Amino acid sequence: MIWIRNGRVVDGSGAPERTGDVLIEGDRITEVGRLSPGRVDERDPALETIDAAGKVVSPGFIDMHAHSDFSIPVGGGPMTEKLRQGVTTAVIGSCGMSAAPVNPRAVRFFRRFTAGMFGSECPFRWNSVGEYVRYITEAGHAGNVVVQVGMGNLRLMVRGLLPGRSSAGQVKRMKETLARSLDEGARGFSTGLIYPPQKWASREEIAELVGVLSGREQAIYSTHVRDEADRVEEAMREALDTARRAGVSLQISHHKAVFERNHGRVRKTMELLSHAREQGLDVETDVYPYNAFSNIILPFLFRYEPGLDRSILFLSMKHHKELEGKTLAEAAAAKRRDPRLLILSMALREGVAGMPIAGFLMSEDDVRFLLGHPLASIGSDGNECFGGRSHPRLYGTHARFIETYIVRERLVSLEEGVRKMTGMVAAKLRLKDRGLLRKGYHADLVVFDPENVRENTTYQDPVRYPTGFDAVIVNGRVAVRSDVQTAARAGRVL
After folding, report:
1. 476 — alpha (psi -120 to 50), left (phi > 0) or beta?
2. β-strand 249-252 against 283-287: which pairing, if any?
3. Sequence-separated (6 or more) residues with CB below 8 Å from residue 487
4. Using the 8-state DSSP alphabet, how is residue 357 labeled?
5. Residue 6 backbone phi and psi in degrees, to 5
6. Could you report the per-residue pLDDT of 34-43, keeping only the tens digit for each?
7. CA-CA distance, 405 to 409, in Å (whole number)?
8. Which residues, given as ranges, of the chain have pLDDT below 70?
9. Model confidence over 71-86: pLDDT tens digits?
10. What is the DSSP letter of 297?
11. Residue 87: in which H helix or E strand, if any?
Protein backbone atom coordinates (compact mmCIF):
# COMPACT_ATOMS: atom_id res chain seq x y z
CA MET A 1 0.00 0.00 0.00
CA ILE A 2 1.24 3.49 -0.89
CA TRP A 3 -0.20 6.59 0.78
CA ILE A 4 0.57 9.88 -0.97
CA ARG A 5 -0.32 12.60 1.54
CA ASN A 6 -1.38 16.25 1.27
CA GLY A 7 -0.57 16.71 -2.40
CA ARG A 8 -1.78 19.22 -4.95
CA VAL A 9 -3.96 16.77 -6.87
CA VAL A 10 -4.07 17.58 -10.60
CA ASP A 11 -6.14 14.75 -11.97
CA GLY A 12 -5.40 14.95 -15.73
CA SER A 13 -8.87 16.07 -16.79
CA GLY A 14 -8.08 19.79 -16.83
CA ALA A 15 -10.14 20.36 -13.67
CA PRO A 16 -8.74 22.77 -11.04
CA GLU A 17 -6.20 21.33 -8.65
CA ARG A 18 -7.28 20.42 -5.13
CA THR A 19 -5.47 19.37 -1.99
CA GLY A 20 -5.83 15.74 -1.05
CA ASP A 21 -4.40 12.26 -0.63
CA VAL A 22 -4.06 9.35 -3.03
CA LEU A 23 -4.13 5.78 -1.77
CA ILE A 24 -2.77 2.91 -3.83
CA GLU A 25 -3.44 -0.75 -3.10
CA GLY A 26 -1.92 -3.29 -5.44
CA ASP A 27 -1.90 -1.84 -8.95
CA ARG A 28 -4.97 0.37 -8.47
CA ILE A 29 -5.89 3.74 -7.03
CA THR A 30 -8.36 3.06 -4.23
CA GLU A 31 -8.93 6.58 -2.85
CA VAL A 32 -8.48 10.15 -4.10
CA GLY A 33 -9.21 12.99 -1.68
CA ARG A 34 -9.23 13.32 2.08
CA LEU A 35 -9.06 9.87 3.65
CA SER A 36 -11.48 9.04 6.42
CA PRO A 37 -9.98 8.51 9.92
CA GLY A 38 -8.67 4.99 10.36
CA ARG A 39 -8.60 4.28 6.62
CA VAL A 40 -4.84 3.75 6.84
CA ASP A 41 -2.92 2.05 9.63
CA GLU A 42 0.22 4.15 9.88
CA ARG A 43 1.91 1.43 11.95
CA ASP A 44 1.62 -1.08 9.10
CA PRO A 45 5.24 -1.97 8.15
CA ALA A 46 4.11 -2.63 4.58
CA LEU A 47 2.78 0.91 4.20
CA GLU A 48 4.89 3.33 2.15
CA THR A 49 4.13 6.99 2.78
CA ILE A 50 5.05 9.80 0.42
CA ASP A 51 4.77 13.30 1.81
CA ALA A 52 3.55 15.38 -1.13
CA ALA A 53 2.90 18.65 0.71
CA GLY A 54 3.36 21.47 -1.78
CA LYS A 55 4.01 18.97 -4.59
CA VAL A 56 1.82 18.08 -7.56
CA VAL A 57 0.34 14.60 -7.71
CA SER A 58 -0.78 13.75 -11.23
CA PRO A 59 -1.29 10.77 -13.52
CA GLY A 60 1.91 9.42 -15.02
CA PHE A 61 2.79 11.19 -18.25
CA ILE A 62 2.16 9.45 -21.58
CA ASP A 63 4.69 10.08 -24.34
CA MET A 64 2.52 10.25 -27.45
CA HIS A 65 5.39 9.72 -29.88
CA ALA A 66 8.37 7.55 -28.94
CA HIS A 67 10.89 5.18 -30.50
CA SER A 68 11.67 3.00 -27.49
CA ASP A 69 10.75 -0.34 -29.08
CA PHE A 70 14.34 -1.00 -30.20
CA SER A 71 15.85 -0.25 -26.76
CA ILE A 72 13.30 -1.93 -24.47
CA PRO A 73 14.61 -5.46 -25.26
CA VAL A 74 18.15 -4.37 -24.30
CA GLY A 75 19.57 -4.27 -20.79
CA GLY A 76 16.45 -5.29 -18.90
CA GLY A 77 14.12 -2.65 -20.29
CA PRO A 78 14.90 0.15 -17.80
CA MET A 79 13.29 2.95 -19.88
CA THR A 80 15.25 5.37 -17.71
CA GLU A 81 15.02 8.29 -20.13
CA LYS A 82 11.22 8.08 -19.88
CA LEU A 83 10.72 7.38 -16.20
CA ARG A 84 13.16 10.02 -14.93
CA GLN A 85 10.93 12.72 -16.48
CA GLY A 86 7.65 11.27 -15.20
CA VAL A 87 6.68 9.26 -18.28
CA THR A 88 4.99 5.99 -17.30
CA THR A 89 3.70 5.04 -20.78
CA ALA A 90 5.30 5.39 -24.22
CA VAL A 91 3.64 5.03 -27.62
CA ILE A 92 6.20 3.14 -29.73
CA GLY A 93 6.54 2.05 -33.35
CA SER A 94 6.31 5.65 -34.57
CA CYS A 95 7.16 7.14 -37.98
CA GLY A 96 6.57 3.85 -39.76
CA MET A 97 9.46 2.06 -38.05
CA SER A 98 8.78 -0.58 -35.40
CA ALA A 99 10.71 -3.43 -33.85
CA ALA A 100 8.04 -5.85 -35.08
CA PRO A 101 6.91 -7.43 -37.30
CA VAL A 102 10.16 -8.28 -39.06
CA ASN A 103 11.71 -10.88 -41.32
CA PRO A 104 15.42 -11.28 -42.18
CA ARG A 105 15.16 -8.63 -44.91
CA ALA A 106 13.71 -6.06 -42.50
CA VAL A 107 16.23 -6.92 -39.77
CA ARG A 108 19.10 -6.34 -42.19
CA PHE A 109 17.70 -2.90 -42.96
CA PHE A 110 17.42 -1.93 -39.30
CA ARG A 111 20.90 -3.19 -38.49
CA ARG A 112 22.59 -1.54 -41.49
CA PHE A 113 20.67 1.62 -42.27
CA THR A 114 19.12 2.78 -39.02
CA ALA A 115 21.82 1.82 -36.54
CA GLY A 116 22.70 5.51 -36.21
CA MET A 117 19.14 6.29 -35.15
CA PHE A 118 18.19 3.25 -33.08
CA GLY A 119 21.48 1.54 -32.32
CA SER A 120 22.54 -1.95 -33.34
CA GLU A 121 22.05 -3.69 -30.01
CA CYS A 122 18.42 -4.76 -30.55
CA PRO A 123 18.44 -8.60 -30.52
CA PHE A 124 15.44 -9.17 -32.88
CA ARG A 125 14.65 -12.56 -31.33
CA TRP A 126 11.14 -12.45 -32.78
CA ASN A 127 9.30 -12.11 -36.05
CA SER A 128 5.72 -11.18 -35.22
CA VAL A 129 4.21 -8.54 -32.95
CA GLY A 130 2.91 -11.33 -30.73
CA GLU A 131 6.41 -12.74 -30.31
CA TYR A 132 7.82 -9.27 -29.60
CA VAL A 133 5.18 -8.66 -26.93
CA ARG A 134 5.93 -12.01 -25.31
CA TYR A 135 9.68 -11.35 -25.40
CA ILE A 136 9.58 -7.97 -23.66
CA THR A 137 6.89 -9.15 -21.23
CA GLU A 138 8.95 -12.14 -20.12
CA ALA A 139 12.16 -10.07 -19.94
CA GLY A 140 10.42 -7.25 -18.07
CA HIS A 141 10.29 -3.53 -18.76
CA ALA A 142 9.94 -0.61 -16.38
CA GLY A 143 7.28 1.45 -18.17
CA ASN A 144 4.09 0.76 -20.07
CA VAL A 145 4.07 0.68 -23.86
CA VAL A 146 1.49 1.05 -26.60
CA VAL A 147 2.63 -0.84 -29.70
CA GLN A 148 2.19 0.39 -33.27
CA VAL A 149 3.09 -1.34 -36.54
CA GLY A 150 5.31 0.61 -38.91
CA MET A 151 4.53 0.76 -42.62
CA GLY A 152 8.25 0.65 -43.29
CA ASN A 153 8.36 -2.82 -41.78
CA LEU A 154 5.50 -4.07 -43.95
CA ARG A 155 7.07 -2.74 -47.15
CA LEU A 156 10.55 -3.99 -46.26
CA MET A 157 9.16 -7.45 -45.61
CA VAL A 158 7.56 -7.81 -49.04
CA ARG A 159 9.80 -5.74 -51.37
CA GLY A 160 12.84 -4.52 -49.49
CA LEU A 161 14.13 -1.07 -50.42
CA LEU A 162 12.87 -1.22 -54.00
CA PRO A 163 11.30 2.08 -55.09
CA GLY A 164 8.04 2.25 -56.97
CA ARG A 165 4.53 1.04 -56.33
CA SER A 166 3.70 -2.23 -54.65
CA SER A 167 1.78 -4.82 -56.63
CA ALA A 168 -1.73 -5.88 -55.66
CA GLY A 169 -0.31 -9.12 -54.29
CA GLN A 170 2.26 -7.30 -52.17
CA VAL A 171 -0.38 -4.94 -50.76
CA LYS A 172 -2.53 -7.95 -49.91
CA ARG A 173 0.35 -9.54 -47.98
CA MET A 174 1.02 -6.27 -46.11
CA LYS A 175 -2.64 -5.96 -45.17
CA GLU A 176 -2.70 -9.54 -43.88
CA THR A 177 0.42 -8.93 -41.75
CA LEU A 178 -1.03 -5.69 -40.38
CA ALA A 179 -4.35 -7.35 -39.48
CA ARG A 180 -2.52 -10.22 -37.76
CA SER A 181 -0.35 -7.73 -35.85
CA LEU A 182 -3.42 -5.86 -34.60
CA ASP A 183 -4.92 -9.15 -33.45
CA GLU A 184 -1.68 -9.90 -31.58
CA GLY A 185 -1.62 -6.70 -29.53
CA ALA A 186 -0.70 -3.74 -31.73
CA ARG A 187 -2.99 -0.75 -31.19
CA GLY A 188 -1.98 1.34 -34.16
CA PHE A 189 -0.42 1.72 -37.59
CA SER A 190 2.18 4.39 -38.32
CA THR A 191 3.74 5.88 -41.41
CA GLY A 192 6.84 8.00 -41.97
CA LEU A 193 6.28 9.23 -45.49
CA ILE A 194 9.62 11.01 -45.92
CA TYR A 195 11.64 7.82 -45.34
CA PRO A 196 12.52 5.06 -47.82
CA PRO A 197 10.82 2.76 -48.64
CA GLN A 198 7.60 4.39 -47.38
CA LYS A 199 8.08 7.57 -49.40
CA TRP A 200 7.49 5.60 -52.59
CA ALA A 201 4.06 4.39 -51.50
CA SER A 202 1.12 5.89 -53.36
CA ARG A 203 -1.89 7.40 -51.65
CA GLU A 204 -3.89 4.37 -52.73
CA GLU A 205 -1.43 1.94 -51.11
CA ILE A 206 -1.53 3.88 -47.85
CA ALA A 207 -5.33 4.05 -47.97
CA GLU A 208 -5.51 0.28 -48.45
CA LEU A 209 -3.43 -0.30 -45.33
CA VAL A 210 -5.18 2.33 -43.20
CA GLY A 211 -8.44 0.67 -44.18
CA VAL A 212 -7.38 -2.40 -42.17
CA LEU A 213 -7.94 -0.29 -39.02
CA SER A 214 -11.54 0.41 -39.96
CA GLY A 215 -13.96 -1.02 -37.42
CA ARG A 216 -11.25 -1.54 -34.81
CA GLU A 217 -12.30 0.96 -32.16
CA GLN A 218 -8.99 1.01 -30.27
CA ALA A 219 -6.79 1.36 -33.36
CA ILE A 220 -5.13 4.62 -34.35
CA TYR A 221 -3.37 5.84 -37.50
CA SER A 222 -0.37 8.06 -36.76
CA THR A 223 1.64 9.67 -39.51
CA HIS A 224 4.81 11.61 -40.08
CA VAL A 225 3.27 13.39 -43.06
CA ARG A 226 4.81 13.39 -46.52
CA ASP A 227 6.19 16.92 -46.29
CA GLU A 228 6.84 19.27 -43.35
CA ALA A 229 8.21 22.10 -45.48
CA ASP A 230 6.93 23.75 -48.67
CA ARG A 231 4.07 21.28 -49.16
CA VAL A 232 3.04 20.86 -45.54
CA GLU A 233 -0.59 21.87 -46.15
CA GLU A 234 -0.92 19.42 -49.04
CA ALA A 235 0.59 16.68 -46.88
CA MET A 236 -1.84 17.48 -44.09
CA ARG A 237 -4.79 17.24 -46.48
CA GLU A 238 -3.57 13.84 -47.67
CA ALA A 239 -3.48 12.52 -44.09
CA LEU A 240 -6.92 13.94 -43.30
CA ASP A 241 -8.45 12.51 -46.48
CA THR A 242 -6.95 9.08 -45.85
CA ALA A 243 -8.30 8.91 -42.29
CA ARG A 244 -11.67 10.32 -43.31
CA ARG A 245 -12.15 7.71 -46.06
CA ALA A 246 -11.30 4.88 -43.68
CA GLY A 247 -13.22 6.32 -40.73
CA VAL A 248 -10.29 5.92 -38.34
CA SER A 249 -8.69 7.93 -35.55
CA LEU A 250 -5.80 10.08 -36.83
CA GLN A 251 -2.71 11.43 -35.06
CA ILE A 252 -0.41 13.88 -36.87
CA SER A 253 3.07 13.19 -35.55
CA HIS A 254 5.44 15.91 -34.24
CA HIS A 255 3.79 18.67 -36.25
CA LYS A 256 6.05 21.44 -37.56
CA ALA A 257 6.88 23.62 -40.57
CA VAL A 258 10.58 23.82 -41.45
CA PHE A 259 12.60 26.50 -43.23
CA GLU A 260 12.05 30.18 -42.50
CA ARG A 261 9.83 30.73 -45.55
CA ASN A 262 7.31 28.27 -44.06
CA HIS A 263 7.25 29.65 -40.54
CA GLY A 264 3.72 30.53 -39.50
CA ARG A 265 2.07 27.98 -41.78
CA VAL A 266 1.20 25.76 -38.81
CA ARG A 267 -1.64 28.19 -38.13
CA LYS A 268 -3.18 27.20 -41.45
CA THR A 269 -2.57 23.49 -40.94
CA MET A 270 -4.15 23.63 -37.50
CA GLU A 271 -7.17 25.31 -39.06
CA LEU A 272 -7.42 22.28 -41.33
CA LEU A 273 -7.27 19.98 -38.29
CA SER A 274 -9.82 21.99 -36.36
CA HIS A 275 -12.21 22.03 -39.32
CA ALA A 276 -11.85 18.28 -39.79
CA ARG A 277 -12.51 17.80 -36.10
CA GLU A 278 -15.65 19.92 -36.29
CA GLN A 279 -16.82 17.71 -39.15
CA GLY A 280 -16.49 14.59 -37.03
CA LEU A 281 -12.97 13.28 -37.69
CA ASP A 282 -11.14 12.14 -34.55
CA VAL A 283 -7.86 13.97 -35.25
CA GLU A 284 -5.19 15.45 -33.00
CA THR A 285 -1.49 16.17 -33.21
CA ASP A 286 1.54 16.07 -30.93
CA VAL A 287 4.54 18.35 -30.58
CA TYR A 288 7.84 18.48 -28.69
CA PRO A 289 8.93 21.70 -26.93
CA TYR A 290 12.04 22.40 -29.00
CA ASN A 291 12.66 24.50 -32.10
CA ALA A 292 15.09 21.96 -33.57
CA PHE A 293 14.14 18.58 -34.95
CA SER A 294 16.39 15.55 -35.20
CA ASN A 295 17.01 13.34 -38.20
CA ILE A 296 19.85 11.92 -40.23
CA ILE A 297 21.77 14.41 -42.35
CA LEU A 298 21.72 12.67 -45.73
CA PRO A 299 18.33 14.02 -46.94
CA PHE A 300 19.70 17.54 -46.64
CA LEU A 301 22.41 16.75 -49.15
CA PHE A 302 19.63 16.77 -51.74
CA ARG A 303 17.83 19.72 -50.19
CA TYR A 304 20.78 21.96 -49.54
CA GLU A 305 19.98 25.65 -49.24
CA PRO A 306 22.05 28.76 -48.45
CA GLY A 307 22.62 29.05 -44.72
CA LEU A 308 21.65 25.45 -44.02
CA ASP A 309 25.17 24.63 -42.83
CA ARG A 310 24.75 27.04 -39.90
CA SER A 311 21.45 25.45 -38.84
CA ILE A 312 22.61 21.82 -38.61
CA LEU A 313 24.33 20.48 -35.50
CA PHE A 314 26.04 17.07 -35.45
CA LEU A 315 24.87 14.98 -32.49
CA SER A 316 26.60 11.61 -32.54
CA MET A 317 29.16 9.86 -34.73
CA LYS A 318 31.43 6.85 -34.42
CA HIS A 319 34.34 7.95 -36.61
CA HIS A 320 34.25 11.75 -36.35
CA LYS A 321 33.97 12.31 -32.61
CA GLU A 322 35.79 15.62 -32.91
CA LEU A 323 32.81 17.03 -34.85
CA GLU A 324 30.12 16.14 -32.31
CA GLY A 325 28.43 19.26 -31.03
CA LYS A 326 29.62 21.32 -34.01
CA THR A 327 27.52 22.84 -36.76
CA LEU A 328 28.01 21.73 -40.34
CA ALA A 329 29.55 25.16 -41.03
CA GLU A 330 32.04 24.69 -38.19
CA ALA A 331 32.85 21.16 -39.34
CA ALA A 332 33.35 22.27 -42.95
CA ALA A 333 35.68 25.06 -41.82
CA ALA A 334 37.65 22.69 -39.60
CA LYS A 335 38.02 20.17 -42.44
CA ARG A 336 38.41 22.84 -45.13
CA ARG A 337 35.78 21.15 -47.26
CA ASP A 338 32.62 22.21 -49.05
CA PRO A 339 29.70 21.27 -46.75
CA ARG A 340 28.07 18.94 -49.28
CA LEU A 341 31.32 17.20 -50.12
CA LEU A 342 32.02 16.83 -46.41
CA ILE A 343 28.63 15.15 -45.87
CA LEU A 344 29.39 12.68 -48.67
CA SER A 345 32.87 11.82 -47.41
CA MET A 346 31.65 11.40 -43.84
CA ALA A 347 28.74 9.20 -44.94
CA LEU A 348 31.23 6.76 -46.50
CA ARG A 349 32.59 6.07 -43.01
CA GLU A 350 29.57 6.71 -40.78
CA GLY A 351 26.98 4.98 -42.96
CA VAL A 352 23.80 6.27 -44.57
CA ALA A 353 22.02 6.74 -41.25
CA GLY A 354 25.09 7.14 -39.08
CA MET A 355 25.02 10.90 -38.59
CA PRO A 356 22.04 12.03 -36.50
CA ILE A 357 21.68 15.81 -36.40
CA ALA A 358 19.65 18.56 -34.79
CA GLY A 359 18.15 20.94 -37.32
CA PHE A 360 17.41 24.47 -36.12
CA LEU A 361 14.90 25.13 -38.89
CA MET A 362 11.74 25.62 -36.87
CA SER A 363 10.21 28.78 -35.43
CA GLU A 364 9.92 29.23 -31.66
CA ASP A 365 6.67 31.13 -32.27
CA ASP A 366 5.30 28.10 -34.13
CA VAL A 367 6.40 25.78 -31.31
CA ARG A 368 4.67 27.95 -28.71
CA PHE A 369 1.52 28.19 -30.83
CA LEU A 370 1.34 24.40 -31.18
CA LEU A 371 2.13 23.70 -27.52
CA GLY A 372 -0.76 25.92 -26.51
CA HIS A 373 -3.24 24.56 -29.04
CA PRO A 374 -6.06 22.47 -27.51
CA LEU A 375 -5.61 19.73 -30.16
CA ALA A 376 -1.89 19.23 -29.43
CA SER A 377 -0.51 16.77 -26.89
CA ILE A 378 3.14 16.21 -25.94
CA GLY A 379 5.40 13.66 -27.62
CA SER A 380 9.17 13.48 -27.39
CA ASP A 381 10.11 11.77 -30.69
CA GLY A 382 13.14 10.71 -28.67
CA ASN A 383 15.49 7.99 -29.92
CA GLU A 384 17.25 6.00 -27.21
CA CYS A 385 20.91 5.93 -28.18
CA PHE A 386 22.25 3.53 -25.53
CA GLY A 387 24.11 6.26 -23.68
CA GLY A 388 25.30 8.09 -26.78
CA ARG A 389 24.65 11.72 -27.64
CA SER A 390 21.12 12.49 -28.77
CA HIS A 391 18.72 15.37 -29.20
CA PRO A 392 17.89 16.79 -25.73
CA ARG A 393 14.23 15.89 -26.26
CA LEU A 394 15.03 12.27 -25.32
CA TYR A 395 15.96 13.27 -21.77
CA GLY A 396 14.07 16.49 -21.29
CA THR A 397 10.78 16.82 -23.24
CA HIS A 398 8.31 16.64 -20.38
CA ALA A 399 10.56 18.40 -17.89
CA ARG A 400 11.13 21.24 -20.37
CA PHE A 401 7.40 21.58 -21.02
CA ILE A 402 6.83 21.98 -17.28
CA GLU A 403 9.82 24.20 -16.53
CA THR A 404 9.67 26.52 -19.53
CA TYR A 405 6.13 26.61 -20.85
CA ILE A 406 3.99 25.92 -17.77
CA VAL A 407 5.96 27.55 -14.93
CA ARG A 408 8.17 30.22 -16.51
CA GLU A 409 6.14 31.40 -19.51
CA ARG A 410 2.67 30.37 -18.30
CA LEU A 411 1.78 29.44 -21.86
CA VAL A 412 -0.80 27.01 -20.46
CA SER A 413 -2.08 26.46 -16.96
CA LEU A 414 -0.72 23.66 -14.81
CA GLU A 415 -4.01 21.78 -15.16
CA GLU A 416 -4.07 22.13 -18.95
CA GLY A 417 -0.41 21.22 -19.24
CA VAL A 418 -0.91 18.04 -17.22
CA ARG A 419 -3.98 17.20 -19.34
CA LYS A 420 -1.84 17.43 -22.49
CA MET A 421 0.56 14.87 -21.02
CA THR A 422 -2.02 12.52 -19.47
CA GLY A 423 -5.79 12.48 -19.84
CA MET A 424 -5.82 13.86 -23.38
CA VAL A 425 -3.42 11.17 -24.63
CA ALA A 426 -5.16 8.34 -22.77
CA ALA A 427 -8.49 9.37 -24.28
CA LYS A 428 -6.98 9.51 -27.76
CA LEU A 429 -5.53 6.03 -27.33
CA ARG A 430 -8.71 4.75 -25.66
CA LEU A 431 -6.67 3.42 -22.73
CA LYS A 432 -9.12 2.03 -20.23
CA ASP A 433 -8.70 3.24 -16.63
CA ARG A 434 -5.52 5.22 -17.28
CA GLY A 435 -4.56 8.85 -17.73
CA LEU A 436 -6.65 10.22 -14.84
CA LEU A 437 -6.49 10.12 -11.04
CA ARG A 438 -9.71 8.25 -10.36
CA LYS A 439 -10.73 5.57 -7.88
CA GLY A 440 -10.33 2.20 -9.56
CA TYR A 441 -7.88 3.44 -12.19
CA HIS A 442 -4.47 1.86 -12.70
CA ALA A 443 -1.87 3.37 -10.41
CA ASP A 444 0.41 5.22 -12.83
CA LEU A 445 1.36 8.45 -11.03
CA VAL A 446 4.03 11.10 -10.74
CA VAL A 447 4.80 13.40 -7.80
CA PHE A 448 6.80 16.49 -8.71
CA ASP A 449 7.55 20.04 -7.64
CA PRO A 450 6.85 22.17 -10.74
CA GLU A 451 8.81 25.14 -9.38
CA ASN A 452 11.90 22.98 -9.03
CA VAL A 453 11.67 20.81 -12.15
CA ARG A 454 14.78 21.33 -14.26
CA GLU A 455 15.39 20.03 -17.77
CA ASN A 456 19.22 19.99 -17.38
CA THR A 457 19.97 18.44 -20.80
CA THR A 458 21.47 20.65 -23.53
CA TYR A 459 22.55 20.22 -27.16
CA GLN A 460 26.19 20.36 -26.10
CA ASP A 461 25.71 18.07 -23.10
CA PRO A 462 22.58 16.04 -23.86
CA VAL A 463 23.07 12.97 -21.64
CA ARG A 464 21.74 14.60 -18.47
CA TYR A 465 18.57 13.64 -16.63
CA PRO A 466 16.02 16.11 -15.32
CA THR A 467 15.46 16.79 -11.63
CA GLY A 468 12.46 17.68 -9.51
CA PHE A 469 10.58 14.38 -9.62
CA ASP A 470 9.92 12.99 -6.15
CA ALA A 471 8.22 9.77 -7.21
CA VAL A 472 7.14 7.95 -10.36
CA ILE A 473 4.82 4.99 -9.87
CA VAL A 474 4.01 2.39 -12.54
CA ASN A 475 1.15 -0.03 -11.93
CA GLY A 476 1.42 0.50 -8.20
CA ARG A 477 5.17 0.08 -7.89
CA VAL A 478 7.65 2.88 -7.26
CA ALA A 479 9.92 3.19 -10.33
CA VAL A 480 11.63 6.47 -9.38
CA ARG A 481 12.12 7.95 -5.92
CA SER A 482 13.81 11.34 -5.41
CA ASP A 483 15.17 11.34 -8.98
CA VAL A 484 16.69 7.86 -8.54
CA GLN A 485 15.37 4.87 -10.49
CA THR A 486 14.54 1.68 -8.62
CA ALA A 487 14.81 -1.91 -9.83
CA ALA A 488 11.04 -2.19 -10.39
CA ARG A 489 9.97 -3.62 -13.74
CA ALA A 490 6.21 -3.18 -13.53
CA GLY A 491 5.52 -2.02 -17.08
CA ARG A 492 2.91 -3.65 -19.28
CA VAL A 493 1.98 -3.78 -22.94
CA LEU A 494 -1.33 -1.92 -23.02
Report:
1. left
2. parallel
3. none
4. E
5. 60, 40
6. 998 889 988 8
7. 5
8. 116, 119, 301, 352, 386-387
9. 999 988 999 999 999 9
10. S
11. strand 87-91
